[in-house]
What does this fold into?
Amino acid sequence: MKSFYSLKEDGFQAYWFEGTVHKDKAIIWMHGSGMNEKHCIADSEYIRKAGYSVLVLGFYLWKGMPKQMRGIPVEYVMKAAAELKKNGYKKIGIHGISSGAAYALLCASLIPEISLVLSICPFDYVMEEPVIFRKPTGRSWFSLEGRDYPCSLFTSQRRDGFFRSLLAYKKQDYEHHNEYLRSFYENAELREESRIKVENMKADVLLIAPERDSQWPSPDAVRRMRKVLENAGYPYRMRTVIYPHASHLLGTYPPESWKKAFPAEKKWPEECNQSRKDCFGEEMRFLEEWK
It folds into this structure.
């Protein structure tokens, strides 16, 4: 394995950290939207310290990569998994937070070599490119074989525009008035063709979310996915955890300045810190049972 893989030479961009304990297992580790190389490497340290081999993969925004979250190829992970397999790794896991969690689930549903998924603050539908002040583009988050993956649309924003939908939201929901971004997803027209087919995964899966996720309705997504998997008679390990007092910063080591942007962090600071600590514990325990 190389220490660094570039998009130009290898078809994906990632940093490789070889483990010291679990020699036959490797984890493709991804953060969420807006995270550069520095944050991704720093926040993946806990899993590397546990002795796992980790491929920290970027899917956009990194230096030399696209800056918009649209048309992100599933092939990034396909090529990364193939590289791990070529180098003798028999067990390949994938980790993602937020948009990285959705990407991880989609990739696991399409790549049978992935045998474990750690999905923190996920969503279960592929959506159109998120934009705030511009007109929606209709471009999908992800792509496969050069074509956009089917996506659902932000219905209220398309109908009313950003500012009108913001004013309407504030009039309707005072208690959760800081969860405007979440409302985009709650009011979206979720299309079945854009649903991530988690039932097609061949992997143990851990799904974790905060109940009052201000960014998007990840707890609703977790409950939907659990129901889908149960109804399908899913034969692999599945665990779901929803924290009553936590924020979208689960799975991270956030600086104090970041916490100010999340209502739950201001309302329940101690509980949020404890939920973060417990989340890391859940991941470690789930990894220990990965056979």
